[in-house]
């Protein structure tokens, strides 16, 4: 375990997310770092997520008053200080004793939603007690009754949305974890799935114990009928995470979904899956404003957020970067990550000639692959 939860703060000032990433890599045991940083297969989609952002260029506008430039927006009808939510990442206690509690406090301070994972290492009731905006990420379990009980538990705890992940019938082959024989340490538990020791804690050569555990637990038969069940079960907004096909986005709208997250799961599921950046324009066109479109995968800067907005996104999910901050500096590290991103978003908006997020969505974005 890396972070110090004593409140002492981080050791250095981070100027960009690369600094945060290096600090986390230095702080964590190699197998834990691989679990967080790695992708599936040859990690083609993992690398492509960043390359896709790097290929997008925005045409800025000039002679506009940006003296009052602000990054405030709304996500799922709620005010946010910037068009960003922390995305779901499992087992925060792998990197910090306070785990998801520290992340939730930092998100509250930053004025952005925190998406709590089904595979959280802290119960949902303790996380919502922090008082910020919490979304609950849902994996559909083999036991449908247990799944819907978990939805009701999240709703009763005060969560503001259900984020159903739809691209994980089982975990992709994450070769770093396989080579490491990765398993959870005893103090890190999937508290929403019983909380006791499980196959996720029994490592061995040639296998990821976490992958074995999820294969035993997650449903492989998730279909649109389950989305209908979810819609009937909860009054909360429903977000589908892991959508890349326009046809699926249109069908999501037909099923009453409030938002879709365009995502290849951070390059951790199908290796070779299209990047969210490349899929985004078609997805925006497909839904025609009938639901919100969020982008997930590869976001590392305020400029990336600007590019996503220019391509039509309502906002973005930030996955690995908050966990890097948590690993390197605990709650204060997550706060620094979010403060840095907020400053970068405002900087990018103003330099692009935008006084706010609405104007950013009117910018032209140009893709220039293979050209200088």
UniProtKB/TrEMBL annotation:
Transmembrane segments: none annotated. The active site is at residue 265. SUPFAM superfamilies: FMN-linked oxidoreductases. The keyword Oxidoreductase applies. GO terms for molecular function: FMN binding; oxidoreductase activity, acting on CH-OH group of donors. Residues 9-370 form the FMN hydroxy acid dehydrogenase domain. Glyoxylate binds at residues 139, 174, 263, 265, 268. InterPro entries: Aldolase_TIM (IPR013785), Alpha-hydoxy_acid_DH_FMN (IPR012133), FMN-dep_DH (IPR000262), FMN_HAD (IPR037396), FMN_hydac_DH_AS (IPR008259). Its cofactor is FMN. Coiled coil: none annotated. FMN binds at residues 88-90, 137, 165, 241, 296-300, 319-320. It holds the Pfam family FMN_dh. PANTHER family: 2-HYDROXYACID OXIDASE 1, S -2-HYDROXY-ACID OXIDASE-RELATED. Belongs to the FMN-dependent alpha-hydroxy acid dehydrogenase family. This is Alpha-hydroxy-acid oxidizing protein. The lineage of its organism: Bacteria, Bacillati, Actinomycetota, Actinomycetes, Kitasatosporales.
């Amino acid at each position: 375990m890396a972070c110090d939860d004593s409140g002492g703060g981080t050791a250095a000032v981070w100027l960009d997310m690369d600094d945060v990433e290096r600090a986390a890599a230095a702080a964590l045991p190699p197998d834990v770092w691989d679990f967080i940083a790695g992708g599936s297969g040859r990690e083609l989609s993992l690398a492509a997520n960043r390359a896709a952002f790097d290929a997008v260029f925005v045409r800025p506008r000039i002679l506009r008053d940006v003296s009052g430039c602000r990054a405030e927006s709304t996500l799922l009808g709620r005010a946010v200080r910037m068009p960003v939510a922390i995305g779901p990442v499992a087992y925060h206690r792998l990197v910090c004793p306070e785990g998801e509690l520290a992340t939730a406090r930092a998100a509250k301070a930053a004025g952005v939603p925190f998406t709590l994972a089904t595979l959280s290492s802290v119960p949902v009731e303790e996380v919502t007690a922090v008082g910020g905006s919490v979304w609950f990420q849902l994996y559909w379990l083999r036991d449908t009754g247990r799944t819907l009980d978990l939805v009701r538990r999240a709703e009763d705890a005060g969560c503001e949305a259900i984020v159903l992940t739809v691209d994980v019938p089982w975990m992709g082959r994450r070769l770093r974890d396989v080579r490491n024989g990765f398993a959870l340490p005893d103090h890190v538990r999937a508290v929403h799935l019983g909380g006791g020791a499980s196959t996720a804690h029994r490592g061995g050569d040639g296998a990821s114990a976490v992958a074995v555990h999820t294969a035993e637990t997650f449903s492989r038969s998730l279909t649109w009928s389950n989305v209908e069940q979810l819609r009937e079960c909860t009054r909360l907004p429903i977000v589908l995470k892991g959508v890349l096909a326009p046809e699926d986005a249109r069908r999501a709208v037909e099923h009453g979904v409030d938002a879709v997250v365009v995502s290849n799961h951070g390059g951790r599921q199908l290796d070779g899956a299209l990047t969210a950046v490349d899929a985004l324009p078609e997805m925006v066109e497909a839904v025609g404003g009938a639901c919100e479109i969020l982008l997930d995968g590869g976001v590392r800067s305020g400029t990336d957020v600007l590019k996503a907005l220019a391509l039509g996104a309502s906002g973005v999910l930030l996955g690995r970067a908050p966990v890097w901050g948590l690993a390197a500096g605990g709650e204060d590290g997550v706060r620094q990550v979010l403060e840095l991103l907020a400053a970068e978003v405002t900087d990018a908006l103003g330099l692009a000639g935008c006084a706010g997020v609405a104007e950013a969505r009117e910018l032209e974005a140009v893709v220039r692959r293979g050209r200088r």
